[in-house]
Amino acid sequence: MSYYYNIYTEAIVLRYINYGDNSLIARLYTRENGLISCIAKGVKKKSKKGTSKISYFLPLNICNINLYYSPDKEIHLLSDIHLVYYHQSLHIHFKKIAYTSLLTEFLLGVLHEDNQPYAIFDFLQSKIIQLDQQNEQLLPLYLHILLNTSGYLGYQADEKIWENLLEPKYIHLKSYLHDLYYTSSQNYTLTEDEKKAILSTIEKFMKLHIHGFKGLQSTSIWEVIYSSP
Fold first, then answer.
1. Which of 102, 106, 172, 181 has the fewest CB atoms within 10 Å, measured from its CB?
2. Can you tell me whether residue 201 is helix, strand or coil?
């Protein structure tokens, strides 16, 4: 027999799919329970004021949710949702849309329900807000998020590991990669080839160490990233 807990928690929206005419099924990363799926009934239906809550489910939105959670169910029931932070540019800035898509894909590939969510959630929340507010050095910030998320999951590389993974002609980038764990502010300006080398090296490291991670498939977005400062 299934039983439900009424849970109130913060959540980061990762994606959703439509379910029927007025509902959807959302994939959320919550502070209390890690990665979950939930059904949100009637959220696409407009109120008497002509509004709906569908915009609350844009990727990387940060929300407070009420949830009927059952440990034996794969999909839980969302009873209420409210935005905690209103993004100013994340969903309208061309390059930030690209980073949002890649970051969402990455998080869906590495996060799980059984992760210890508190530290990861707090880190992601602060960095998503920073991504929304920051207009320069978006690539170092994105890489900083990737590397630190993998670090929270128990996988952190040192300069020796980067040296082994980098192609010989890019060995000078090992310090750049190592420094990204500690800061997203970088004085070094990367060439397009260096950006490709760093991204492929990070992806190689994560494929080797993070169970279930198959790499990032959104190849059409990479040209935006390569042209990003």
1. 172
2. helix
| Count of beta carbons in the 10 Å neighbourhood of residue 1 | 3
79: helix, strand or coil: strand
User: How many other C-beta atoms lie within 10 A of the C-beta of residue 224?
Assistant: 17
Buried b (16+ CB within 10 A) or exposed e, 77-109: ebeebeeeeebeebeebebbbbbbbbbbbbbee
Tokens of 226: 């390569």
Positions of the chain with pLDDT under 70: 1-2, 48-50, 114-115, 218-224, 226-229
Each residue's pLDDT tens digit, 139-194: 999 999 999 999 999 888 888 999 999 999 999 999 999 999 998 887 788 898 99
Spell out the domain ranges in the chain.
5-85, 94-226
Write out the CATH class of domain 5-85.
Answer: mainly beta
May I ask the CATH architecture of the domain 94-226? Up-down Bundle (1.20)
| Chain centroid to CA 210 | 15
CA distance 90 to 58: 10
Task: Provide the β-strand partners of residue 85.
Answer: 62
Question: Count H helices, E strands: the chain?
Answer: 7, 5
What DSSP character marks residue 119?
H
